[in-house]
Amino acid sequence: MRRAIESFPEDINVAIVATGGLSHQVHGERCGFNNPDWDAQFVDMLVNDPEKLTEMTLGEYAELGGWRGPK
After folding, report:
1. pTM score > 0.70 for this model?
2. Is 27 a member of any domain?
């Protein structure tokens, strides 16, 4: 990656975001849940329609991506 970034002809700032997977439920009733279809949809929206992500509720993120807050 470094060589590819340094080979870019312009001086740019670069951010690298990496994860083994986006959706995970690691505790609670849905422990073990993951949603690879949502992961792909999320990345697509992040690139092509990030404003749509701002319109989603926390509940929608929790249902699609896995999360369990305090009861």
Report:
1. no
2. yes
